[in-house]
Amino acid sequence: MIPDSTVALSFDCYGTLIDWESGIVAAMQPWLERAGLSLDREDLLRRFGAVETIVESETPGLRYPDVLAETLRRVAKAAGSAATEAEARAFGNSVPDWPAFADSAAALTKLQQRYKLVILSNIDRTSFAASAAKLGVVFDLVITAEDVGAYKPDRRNFERLFADLPAIGASRSTVVHVAESLFHDHGPAQELGLPSVWIHRRAGKAGTGATHPPIGVQEPALRFESMAAFAEEALA
Predict the structure, then answer these.
(1) What DSSP letter does each residue of 85-136 carry, written as one string?
(2) Which of 57, 74, 119, 137 is deepest in the core (most CB within 10 A)?
(3) What is the predicted pLDDT for the residue at 127?
(4) Domains 8-19+98-234 and 21-97 share a fold
(5) Domain 21-97, what fold?
(6) Which residues are catalytic?
(7) pTM
(8) At the topology level of CATH, where does 8-19+98-234 sit?
(9) What's the pLDDT band for 1 if we cut at 50, 70, 90?
(10) Contact 176, 195 (CB under 8 A)
(11) Where are the domains of the chain?
């Protein structure tokens, strides 16, 4: 299980606590319906994941709503049916509508009885505030891509985490990272020697969904298919 010395848990948010794949698919429907396209869920998510990572790497200082808007523009162009600017803007502003996983709020409430809770997310402050309202806790520390000026898997996000932990009474040696994405989170965590827990929300599904496929990343030894299962084990 996680080390007894653990003081803080840092969480990825989208894909781990918030069901971003359902949110993405729902927010793309107006464009798909107007364009008369029939793309199944997994194909749509794969297209999104391939493009979003490129946009983030090309423009690391771009706020996430603008990343989403540009991602839809490129996905639509590749599919042969350009998105309108209204569709791109609506998709960019859709994060507040993305649902939380059903077990996230209860699990976080339980975990906060023992641990400091941190968000380390590829998001902007305004969008996260809307998501935070769905998660039922006040996080002890929030670090967004907007704060860092870069998107995971860039190491600068994790370096910011290490730098900010002392403010909440934790340190690099007493934090464990909890995330779904092997590409965005577990890869850099492994490179930096940061212990991590895999919340494998896509267990039983083929591919990596809305997440870019990882290269050379080892599957973490600590793996759970839900936040509920992780919280139960972490507090045992």
Answers:
(1) HHHHHHHHT-GGGSPBPTTHHHHHHHHTTTSEEEEEESS-HHHHHHHHHHH-
(2) 119
(3) 98
(4) no
(5) DNA polymerase; domain 1 (1.10.150)
(6) 12
(7) 0.97
(8) Rossmann fold (3.40.50)
(9) confident
(10) yes
(11) 8-19+98-234, 21-97
